[in-house]
Amino acid sequence: MRNFHLPLPEELYRTLRDEAAVLEQPATVVARKAIEGWLRDRRKRALHEGIAAYAIEHAGSAADLDTALEAASLKLLKAEDDGRRPERKLKKRRLRKQRKR
Predict the structure, then answer these.
(1) Domain map of the chain by residue range?
(2) What share of the chain is helix, strand, coil (3-state, %, to 5)?
(3) Local structure of residue 25 (DSSP, 8 states)
(4) pLDDT for 78
(5) In contact, 5 and 14? CB cutoff 8 Å
(6) How many Cβ atoms sit within 10 Å of the Cβ of residue 13?
(7) What is the pLDDT of residues 46-85, one digit of tens each?
(8) Pick from 29, 10, 5: which is nearest to 19 by CA?
(9) Residue 17 exposed, middle or buried by CB count within 10 Å (0-12, 13-18, 19+)
(10) Do residues 17 and 6 lie in contact, with contact meaning Cβ atoms separated by under 8 Å?
């Protein structure tokens, strides 16, 4: 593990120490977890923004539509509209296979 010297404003330092006391953990552990959480949130946000940008850029194009997935979804929706529940059939098949084992 590497050390990192981080000067903090007095108020932030006191808040960190108070929180560490409440959690009964060293302030360094609380600070490390806070930094890890912040970095994780930034990575998530960057990923989300990247996906959103891709979706906007490719909206309406061939990259926007998976025809096989759309067909399967429509088939499932039609079956549900007709009152059939295909997922129940799958569950029954799985149960039969498990019983045979």
Answers:
(1) 8-65, 66-101
(2) 80, 0, 20
(3) S
(4) 84
(5) no
(6) 13
(7) 999 999 999 999 888 877 778 888 889 888 888 877 766 6
(8) 29
(9) middle
(10) no
